[in-house]
Amino acid sequence: MARTTTATVALDDAARSATHDLILALADSKRLLGMRYAEWILGAPELEAGIACASMAQDEWGHARLLYALLKEFDVDVERVEHGREPDEYCNMAALDASPDDWAGLIAVNVLCDGALSVQLEALRTSSYVPLRQRVGKLLEEESFHAAHGAAWWRRFASASDASRAALHDAVQARAADVLAWFGPDGPIARTVLDSSVADGAGSTLRERFVERIAPLLAAADLGDVFTNIEPDFAGFEETRRRPAGRAPDEATIRRIRGDRNREFLLD
Amino acid sequence: MIFEVFARKARGEPLRHIGNLNAPDAELARVYAFNTYDEERWFDMWVTPREHFIEVFNAERENGDRR
Question: Apex CA A71: angle with CA A69 and CA A77, to 5°?
Answer without folding.
Answer: 90
